[in-house]
From TrEMBL:
Protein name (database record): HTH-type transcriptional regulator MalT
Lineage start: Bacteria, Pseudomonadati, Pseudomonadota, Gammaproteobacteria, Pseudomonadales
Organism expressing this protein natively: Marinobacter fuscus
Domain of life: Bacteria
Coiled coil feature spans: none
Record text on subunit structure and interactions: Monomer in solution. Oligomerizes to an active state in the presence of the positive effectors ATP and maltotriose.
HAMAP family in UniProt: HTH_type_MalT
Pfam family, one: GerE
Similarity remark: Belongs to the MalT family.
Any GO MF annotation of the entry: ATP binding
Length: 917
């Protein structure tokens, strides 16, 4: 404790003892209410996070919003002087809560011997009220004087119950935090809490950006900046269009000049040589602890080195719950790696080699593999793969495996059956089927000379499993079944999951051939085999396949339950980061879309994107397809258009399975139909995948066929569409593809409606509604747009449905009314059912009731509204132009109309009442 007397001569700066001024566009952060508004006030509220994380602003905003009594003291370096510290502390209490304090006067005159005696007097003089008081010490990391720390510890020991000390700091203050934490006397707010989540970021950005940004881009931005508000501020100030926005976000991975400058200032000159070396050497690591630091730094006291860095308040974040592992903030890591690349002081390759060895010593194979790859060190890669390659595979670490295998010389692979199998499976997973065969043949040639016949037979069996998978992907079910049956008989010697894989292919082949029950049984067996081998990837895959088969059978609830099982398995085995999980999220989002739970569908699609982010955009086709469907269902045209453009580009650039392609095409066609882009539909027809009714024994061939029919329907070529739908229906009925049957009936209802065959249209709609009782389909109905309302109303008015179907129809009408269409013109026709509905409404214009129109006049009104000329109307109704004119005259007279525009207005008004627009 200091011995000099504390009686400073000061001219006070008022801003230091005033709460900060709120920035323009201050965003409320209600999520802190629970932490701040606790019934029993704690002694210490500790707010720690790196610079610019919103510590000061958030706490000021919340304390103000909660109308808490506060005293602020904003610290600077110069406040390390105890006299100055005491004077400002007394002043802030004096100004904010206790105008009668004698301490400031005594400090000025006689002075005090110690900070503790100042604090004792202050505590004694504070009003003893019950109302909570928050004493905020902002920027406490600037305090380095041990006397002040000691005084604060004294204060914490003697705080009255109504007083909470709020410490805002970039570093952990040395105030005996561990004890307070154990005693439950403190609340902590860290970067984890301060980081903006996607909802907050959306609110924050929407306020600042003059253009619309998709949720997907917002989530990506939040992930890249880890919710760091200052980076989001920079992002919003730097982007003027949504394209600039996403470019800025993408660029962050490579580095951003402004952010580098910010870090330059932050790190500044304050580093010792050893600390600098520490930063450069550890920035290549995804995470580190004291032991790791010791190894990469060749230092025998890793802990104290780590502590000295943590005390600097840099962007070092906790990487586990135990507080032993740390990592750099992603943007800070990019900055440090940039510095590393600009220096010759360190040899990056040897850093990575050292890291490989260190991780292997700690038995962290994945990290070891990543560093061995970064070091481009084949021997080390071989070592990692020898020990852990199979585990990477069963766990589904395909992209890591690929990187390892890419870095190995070809000969390393062909001489090793396990490496060859890994290589070939990875290639097949990336749809590089030709490469699969190349790898397998190369190994067979090589191994012929060195292996016994018995060994070769074993290898052949395992190779057959992968050849079966390739045959499957080429759509050759029979060959796949033959090869898989061979493989399933063979014990797996080189890759433990070969038999599981073969069993899975058999299930898939049966599925594709429309043998749904057998396929399901097979996939259940596969799941059990995979479980017994802890082959996580295969377990999830088998469950996803079971879910897909159940969807095909029309059992969407069952499919949902199977997905739940898969999610549980993933959670129990901590697999949430595995790429295969994207498959699970994707099929979950498809069910959610069908059930019209658009928010959940969107959430799942976005989670899929997050999981596959590191693998590259090529894999987002399916997620983008779902997002486009959701955008369409929400009537968000430009967003939907963006996704459609992206999907088109991706399909043009890559080779995808028909399942993905057909699904994407369905969405593209639906979009073009909604915006009436007939040229696009026409063009699509010229390049559309071939369709053969005989092969439509699975959902993707069914979807592909339906796409063709829907395209023809959009172009008015109804007669050509009809036989396609008929054949799809027949195959779906025969094989039990209930979901497809449901969708086929919906399409057929539309087809016959367009052909003005009301009876057939309604019959198919009725069948579709009946099937929907088990499928729960909603999305497929709503895709029809507003015409659905007319058909359903006709069904109801004609008394053709009752019970469950009636209820479903009413619900669908409601949803279709709420749905926003892209097209400005309302496209439904004034069918009898709709006309009746209009006449029955209390809010229709009087003349509609008093001078009723004939059926023909209604038809003509509808066609005028659709934008047809008199000649076109005559042609459409197959009557003479003069007849049309006569009807129009009568219609105008009855409704007291003199211009065509008034007729259009009248029709729009009437239809809008029915459609909910
Ligand atoms: N709730 C909010 N609404 C609007 N802007 C905010 C909000 N929170 C923080 N900001 C802005 O973010 C930036 C950083 O906030 P702030 O200064 O509070 O961070 P900090 O963590 O206290 O930083 P430092 O450690 O540098 O003191 C500021 O420009 C601030 O205006």
């Amino acid at each position: 404790m200091t011995t000099t007397k504390l009686n400073p001569e000061l001219t006070f700066v008022d801003a230091k003892t005033t709460a900060p001024i709120a920035p323009v566009g201050l965003m409320a952060r209600e999520k802190f209410n629970d932490l701040l508004h606790i019934p029993e006030p704690v002694s210490l509220l500790l707010v720690t996070a790196p610079a610019g994380y919103g510590k000061t602003t958030s706490i000021a905003e919340r304390l103000d919003a909660l109308e808490a009594r506060t005293a602020w003291y904003r610290l600077e370096e110069s406040d390390n002087d105890p006299g100055r510290f005491a004077a400002y502390l007394a002043r802030t209490l004096n100004r904010s809560v206790a105008p009668e304090l004698s301490v400031p006067g005594r400090l000025r005159n006689a002075g005090y011997d110690s900070l503790e005696s100042v604090l004792s007097d202050l505590l004694g003089e504070l009003p003893q009220e019950e109302e909570p008081l928050y004493l905020v010490l902002d920027d406490y990391h600037l305090i380095s004087n041990p006397d002040i720390h000691q005084a604060m510890r004294f204060l914490l020991r003697h705080l009255p119950p109504h007083l909470t000390l709020v410490i805002i700091s970039r570093t952990m203050p040395p105030l005996g935090i561990a004890q307070l934490r154990m005693k439950g006397q403190m609340t902590e707010i860290t970067s984890k809490h301060l980081a903006l989540d996607a909802d907050e970021a959306q609110r924050y950005l929407e306020q600042r950006l003059p253009f619309e940004v998709s949720r997907e881009h917002i989530e990506r931005a939040v992930r890249r900046v880890e919710g760091w508000i200052s980076a989001l501020q920079l992002l919003s100030a730097s982007s003027h269009t949504s394209v600039e926005f996403s470019e800025f976000v993408d660029q962050l991975e490579l580095g951003n000049h402004h952010i580098f400058e910010y870090f330059d200032e932050l790190v500044g000159q304050s580093l010792t040589e050893q600390q600098r070396r520490f930063l450069l050497r550890t920035c290549i690591l995804d995470r580190f602890n004291a032991a790791m630091v010791m190894r990469v730094m060749d230092d025998n006291d890793g802990q104290s080195l780590l502590n000295s860095l943590l005390a600097m308040g840099l962007f070092i974040m906790p990487a586990d719950n135990g507080g032993l592992w740390f990592r750099y903030h992603q943007l800070f890591a990019v900055y440090l790696r940039h510095l590393l690349s600009c220096t010759t002081q360190e040899n990056q390759r040897s850093l990575h080699q050292r890291a490989t060895d260190a991780w292997l010593e700690l038995n962290h194979a994945e990290e070891a593999a990543r560093h061995a790859v970064a070091a481009a060190d084949p021997e080390r890669i071989r070592q990692v793969l020898d020990e852990h390659g199979r585990k990477f595979f069963t766990e589904g670490q395909f992209s890591l495996l690929q990187k390892c295998l890419d870095a190995l010389p070809q000969s390393f692979i062909s001489e090793n059956p396990t490496f060859t199998l890994l290589r070939a499976w990875v290639a097949q997973g990336q749809y590089k089927f030709d490469e699969v065969e190349d790898w397998l043949s190369a190994a067979e040639n090589h191994l012929k000379a060195t292996m016994s016949e018995e060994q070769q037979k074993a290898i052949h069996g395992e190779f057959s499993a992968i050849r079966a998978q390739v045959a499957m992907n080429y759509g050759n079910g029979n060959r796949a079944l033959a090869l898989a049956s061979e493989a399933v008989e063979q014990d797996a010697r080189y890759l433990p999951t070969s038999r599981v894989a073969a069993a899975s292919v058999m299930g898939e082949a049966l599925f594709v051939q429309g043998e749904l029950q057998d396929a399901l049984d097979r996939m259940e067996d596969t799941e059990h085999m995979a479980r017994s081998q802890y082959a996580h990837q295969n377990v999830i895959w088998a469950l996803c396949q079971q879910s897909e088969i159940s969807v095909a059978m029309g059992l969407l609830q069952k499919a949902y339950n199977i997905q739940e099982k898969a999610f549980r398995y993933a959670e129990e085995n901590r697999l949430n980061h595995l790429p295969i999980l994207e498959f699970l999220f994707r099929i979950r989002s498809q069910i959610m879309w069908e059930w019209h739970h658009l928010e959940s569908a969107e959430r799942c699609a976005l989670q899929g994107i997050e999981i596959l982010e590191a693998q590259g955009e090529r894999w987002f086709v399916q997620s983008y397809t779902t997002l486009a469907k959701i955008a369409q269902a929400r009537g968000r045209q430009s967003l939907c258009a963006d996704y459609i453009t992206k999907i088109q580009k991706m399909l043009a650039a890559g080779d995808y399975h028909l399942d993905w392609v057909a699904n994407a095409h369905a969405t593209m066609l639906s979009y073009w139909d909604a915006v009436r882009d007939q040229d696009a539909i026409q063009r699509w027809l010229t390049i559309a995948p071939a369709f053969e009714a005989a092969t439509a024994t699975n959902h993707f061939h069914q979807c592909n066929g339906r796409n063709r029919a829907r395209a023809l329907m959009s172009l008015g070529q109804l007669a050509q569409a009809e036989p396609i739908l008929q054949s799809l229906r027949e195959v779906a009925e025969r094989t039990g593809l209930k979901t497809d049957l449901n969708r086929n009936h919906i399409s057929m209802a539309l087809l016959y409606w367009q052909q003005e065959d009301r009876t057939q249209a309604l019959e198919h709609m009725k069948l579709a509604l009946e099937l929907a009782s088990t499928t729960g389909a909603v999305g497929s109905f709503l895709r029809l747009g507003k015409v659905l309302i007319v058909m359903l109303k006709a069904l109801i008015n004609d008394g053709l449905i009752e019970g469950m179907e009636l209820q479903r129809a009413e619900r669908l009408i409601q949803l279709a009314q709420q749905q926003r269409d892209f097209s400005r013109a309302i496209r439904i026709s004034l069918d009898e059912a709709i006309i009746q509905d209009i006449i029955d409404r209390p809010d229709v214009p009087e003349l509609i009731r008093t001078s009723p129109l004939t059926r023909r006049e209604w038809q003509i009104l509808s066609l005028i509204h659709a934008g047809l000329s008199n000649d076109q109307i005559a042609e459409h109704l197959k009557v003479a132009s003069t007849t049309v004119k006569t009807h129009i005259r009568s219609l105008y007279q009855k409704q007291n109309i003199s211009h065509r525009s008034e007729a259009i207005e009248l029709a729009r008004d009437l239809l809008s009442k029915i459609q909910g627009e």
